[in-house]
Amino acid sequence: MSAWYEMILKGREDDVRDLLPGVATDGERPLWGTEVDLHAGSFPEHLLGLLGARTHQLLFVPGTQVGPLVRAIQGKDEFELERVREITGGRFTFRAEAFSAEPAGKIKRALHAPLPEGVVLEGLEESEDFDPAAQGVELYSPAHAYTYRAQGTFLGAPPGIFEIHHTLSALDFVHQEKLELDGRLVEGEGLG
Amino acid sequence: MHESLGTLLPAWSALPFVGILLSIALFPLAAPHFWHHHYPKVALAWGLLLAIPFVWVYGATAVHEILHVALLDYVPFLILLGTLFTIGGGIYIRGSWRGSPAVNATLLLLGTFLASWIGTTGAAMLLIRPLLRANANRRHRQHTVVFFIFLVANIGGSLTPLGDPPLFLGFLRGVPFAWTLTLGSELLVVGGLVLAAYLVLDAWLWKRESIEVRTAPPGTETLRIDGGINFLLLGGVLAAVILSGVWHPGEVTILGIQAGLQNLVRDGLLILLLITSWTITPRPVREANGYSWGPIREVAILFAAIFVTIIPPLAILKAGEHGALAGLIHAVRTPAQFFWASGILSSFLDNAPTYLTFLSTALGRLYPDLPEREAILRLIAENGLYLKAISTGAVFMGANTYIGNAPNFMVKAIAEEAGVEMPSFFGYMKYSGLVLVPIFLVATWIFF
Question: Is the CB of B421 less than 8 angstroms away from the CB of A102?
Fold first, then answer.
């Protein structure tokens, strides 16, 4: 499993997007920060970005693609490489609360499926509550007859931690805390 | 109402009323299962907290007030809601559609129209499941349910006394049935803007659905209405209510309370219609709607406490500047202030008692010395804008939060059990803050 790098570039999103197909290798592709709910730059900057302004772009790039990407932006005025960090691990907590069997089943399957390589799930707590008296329609005392709850923390290295974060993002009734990443800064000279 | 009572009662005698309203608002959020199992005890406690010292201190006057509100407000209110809920719960719409923006907007429009004639609760119960079925394959569904709450569970109910409980309470107290039809322009503007906002948002999200979702065939089940005979019974409800507004055969005295014979006839007819609907509607239709007596039981228990505890604040407000709440009378003066004051309170407390509170505030300020029915007719004739502001504020702004109107929670719970992740309490308020509040500001500018 190769290392993954967090890269913060300054540039227009479309310009960065155009660069990426040229650096993708071995079926792996760089990941946008937004795919795991992470952003570089402030909210006003994000709004400016939607209008096509040159703003901060957050990417997660497999080690094999860092060199080609750095070389691709070297000497181009529209890009500025601000920071590169090698990601050594990450974690996020989640909680889930669903009120019928179908979405609860989807969450359970996701939690109990084999985890991506290098990822562990710690502190998993699950519960199912049944309240037969809460069956049917209520106006003033709404309560669900069935409630499934789960919570826990995923830990691991990329790309597995990204993968499980992405899997849970696609499920309704699951709320993830911000993905926290550990890493060390890498000097720019040695990257190209 | 004994006018002197309002000048005698202290402001803190309204505390049990505040207590029951806050209980209804906060317990479902903070402790839903405790509330589900114990709300009758909580309601009883608030009711007794008012009734025992009230009767102890004021004796026969207090008993008369309680009987008055029970016989003239509570019982007819319960009978109408029970009848509409039973008849509405006997209709089930079958059919499979693809939840495109056009289909969704059509269902919202239909619900907005129906809400005034079968009640917001009935319309919401009738249409929420077809709407959820149509959108079962869509990734973006939450906003559709939220706009359904805005339009069908609230705003649409503004056109007749059948639409929303506050308006029926107004009708019971003397607002003519046809008067609420004059709220049509407010409904058209506010409802139209909300529906337009929905269409823009849903069209944008529709483009973000997968190609499979956007091109999926709509299914094979054709449109069919089970229990359609109940629409005829709804016509009967409408006729019975209108009859009680135009026919005045005289009065009878029950337990010392004078009641219009026409109201007794109306309530008798409504009970007959309820029984007819219950008898002739096939059980599977009701099961498909998830119908039970639970909601009627909830209304019966909680509104018993509301109607008892509301006696002091209404009496004080009707006493106007001579009552202990003169500050409120002074604070709320213009129609725009009544719109927002009744609206903001209806956003967080049940809108039926809120409507009565501000109706009494207006009567206390403008016609403190007149009997209630006469004062209401004068209010309509001379200051109709005040009643429009109170009515639309109470009905429209019940949509601002989950706790503003009873069907809001019902729709949320049904949607969640159908797999739609609904926003949190504050997440819902982001929708209402971004969509409804600007539209209500526009309505204030246009109408008040």
Answer: no
